[in-house]
């Protein structure tokens, strides 16, 4: 930089010197200096115009104007900037090509959308699975191409953790699972997987369990019937009578397991529409369950308290909600010491969802078990729960029923303090009890 300034300063000094000499020789001192300076300005302007033309023509190296001093430096700097920009552009283009090639190769259909649902890019799998086409559908709103109210709701939902399963828009026999992820500024990544095989396997498993349970139930009923008749015959020796009692108990236990497996299969194989069901009072269900528990001696009077909003009714399958309430209540009684205080609540949460809460001041459950409690046959202490007649399927059934009613179950517990099971259902399940037309609250 310093060199350049010195170079230009020397050039000016030389020009001035030429002007002075020319002025002295010609005896028109100022006129000579003015002419020399004017010539310098013209020379400068000429080079600036050349530079401008070169820039406008696309900065080709072969056409770069020849100059010296600061102008030469400007030309070489512009050229350097151009080549480094070209290099980074090439690198970016290469990266973009690699990204596109890998996204193209993904077996999952991938679509990049704006937050308004406009398609920006999609891969080949998306064309096959969703029937979209490039470039025809680029810029189109995806909810105009995949016409389904559930899909539209999913696209604009705030919660992006859920996945949506629907028939493929191309082939109704193919089931696809949609997932949506927010990324970058105002962009959405939609991934779609073919889950037909998994669905078929799930269905086969469920049908197998259902069929096996049905097949086992009939002979077991016969065995239990005969056992009951035989155990009424008091002529047996003490030892035989005792063993008969144990066999009968185990047969009943097996029957309970089979019944619950059949319940689970039934819940799995049928879907519940968002507005399906009857309207009933959850408060009354809780009162009846508590009265039954006290009457049967499973709970002491005053052991269970109820805090229920009597004006809040529910739209759903009453028998299923009875099953949820009784499973949670009997768990609180069976898995805790006698006289453990239990509280039942039925209320609207802050977000207006109707919620059932069952809490106890019992033994509690260690944190590591909590996420697994709703798995089939998962028990915290299998030997103890089997003694109490627990099948290990109760909470799995509760979870399924709550999900069918558009809700979820949350479990919190602290060892030696107690446990709380909260089931919050979809808002649309809340109904005012005293509303004659039973409109949604
Ligand atoms: P079960 O038929 O054994 O009751 P569940 O699926 O209903 O099966 O419950 C799973 C396990 O969770 C139970 O075996 C028990 O160990 C534990 N559990 C459930 N509710 C409670 C509770 N209120 N307090 C302590 N443990 C509980």
Sheet with the most strands, sense and barrel status: 5 strands, antiparallel
CATH architecture of the largest domain: 2-Layer Sandwich
Strand numbers in spatial order across the main sheet: 2-1-5-4-3
Write down the CATH topology of the largest domain: Heat Shock Protein 90
Number of strands: 13
The set of bound ligands, ions and cofactors reads:
adenosine-5'-diphosphate
Oligomeric state, counting identical vs distinct chains: single chain
Provide the gyration radius in Å: 40 Å
Query: What is the C-level CATH assignment of the largest domain?
Result: Alpha Beta
Low-confidence stretches: 436-441
Shape: elongated
Give the SSE order as H and E letters.
HHHEEHHHEEEHHEHEEHEEHHHEEE
Percent helix range: 40-55%
Structural class: alpha+beta
Query: What is the CATH homology-level superfamily of the largest domain?
Result: Histidine kinase-like ATPase, C-terminal domain
Number of contiguous helices: 13
Distance between the termini: 78 Å
Task: Return the domain count.
Answer: 4
Q: Indicate the mean pLDDT.
A: 89
**What portion of the residues fall into strands of 2 or more residues?**
15-25%
Question: What would you note in describing this structure?
Answer:
The protein is an alpha+beta fold. The protein folds into four domains: 98 residues, no CATH class; 89 residues, 2-Layer Sandwich (Beta-Lactamase); 70 residues, Orthogonal Bundle (Helix Hairpins); 155 residues, Heat Shock Protein 90 (2-Layer Sandwich). The chain contains 13 helices and 13 strands. The protein has a five-stranded antiparallel sheet with strand order 2-1-5-4-3, sandwiched between helices. The longest helix has 37 residues. The C terminus is likely disordered. The structure holds adenosine-5'-diphosphate. The site of adenosine-5'-diphosphate (ADP) has 23 residues, from helix 10 and helix 13.
């Amino acid at each position: 930089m310093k060199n350049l300034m010195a170079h230009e300063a020397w050039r000016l000094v030389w020009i001035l010197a030429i002007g002075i000499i020319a002025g002295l020789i010609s005896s028109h001192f100022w006129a000579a200096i003015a002419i020399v300076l004017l010539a310098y300005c013209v020379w400068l302007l000429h080079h600036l115009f050349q530079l401008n033309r070169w820039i406008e023509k696309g900065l080709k190296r072969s056409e770069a104007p020849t100059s010296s001093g600061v102008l030469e430096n400007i030309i070489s700097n512009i050229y350097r900037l151009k080549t480094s920009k070209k290099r980074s552009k090439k690198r970016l283009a290469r990266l973009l090509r690699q990204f596109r090639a890998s996204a193209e190769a993904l077996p999952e259909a991938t679509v990049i959308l704006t937050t308004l649902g406009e398609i920006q890019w999609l891969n080949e799998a998306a064309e096959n699975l969703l029937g979209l086409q490039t470039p025809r559908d680029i810029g189109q709103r995806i909810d105009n191409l995949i016409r389904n109210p559930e899909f539209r709701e999913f696209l604009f939902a705030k919660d992006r953790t859920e996945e949506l399963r629907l028939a493929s828009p191309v082939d109704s026999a193919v089931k696809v699972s949609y997932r949506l992820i927010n990324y970058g500024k105002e962009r959405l990544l939609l991934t779609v997987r073919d889950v037909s095989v998994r669905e078929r396997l799930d269905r086969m498993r469920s049908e197998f369990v259902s069929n096996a349970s049905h097949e086992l139930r009939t002979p077991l009923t016969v065995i239990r019937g005969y056992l009951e008749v035989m155990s009424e015959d008091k002529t047996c020796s003490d030892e035989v009578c005792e063993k008969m009692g144990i066999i009968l108990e185990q047969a009943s236990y097996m029957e309970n397991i089979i019944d619950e497996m059949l319940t689970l299969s039934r819940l799995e194989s049928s879907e519940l529409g968002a507005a399906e069901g009857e309207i009933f009072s959850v408060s009354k269900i809780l009162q009846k369950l508590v009265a039954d528990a006290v009457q049967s001696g499973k709970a002491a009077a005053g052991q269970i308290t109820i805090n229920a909003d009597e004006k809040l009714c529910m739209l759903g399958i009453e028998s299923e909600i009875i099953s949820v309430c009784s499973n949670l209540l009997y768990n609180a009684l069976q898995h805790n010491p006698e006289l453990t205080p239990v509280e039942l609540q039925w209320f609207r949460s802050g977000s207006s969802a109707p919620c059932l809460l069952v809490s106890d001041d019992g033994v509690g459950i260690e944190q590591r078990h909590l996420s697994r409690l709703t798995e089939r046959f998962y028990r915290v202490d299998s030997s103890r729960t089997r003694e109490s007649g627990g099948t290990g399927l109760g909470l799995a059934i509760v979870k399924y029923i709550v999900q069918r009613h558009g809700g979820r179950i949350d479990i919190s517990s602290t060892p030696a303090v107690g446990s709380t099971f909260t089931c919050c259902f979809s808002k649309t399940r809340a109904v005012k009890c005293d509303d004659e037309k039973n409109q949604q609250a």
